[in-house]
Design the sequence.
């Protein structure tokens, strides 16, 4: 679930279209790149930024303060 599109500067260097995520429970979510694939049931905290082409599937849990770098693959 997302709201209107705007340009966002990811990491201070990567400009790409993004949207503010709207969590299914009605709470405001973070910034999600338009090209990211995110399961609609995923809760994204307001301070989180999901970069272009990222994929977050159902049941994903990423702990507080976690940083996942570019071209990182977690799981199968």
Sequence:
């Amino acid at each position: 679930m997302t709201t209107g599109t705007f340009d966002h500067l990811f990491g201070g260097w990567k400009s790409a279209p993004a949207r503010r995520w709207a969590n299914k429970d009605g709470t405001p979510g973070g910034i999600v790149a338009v090209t990211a694939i995110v399961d609609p049931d995923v809760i994204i905290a307001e301070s989180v930024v999901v970069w272009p082409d990222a994929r977050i599937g159902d049941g994903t849990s990423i702990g507080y303060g976690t940083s996942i770098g570019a071209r990182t693959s977690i799981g199968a």
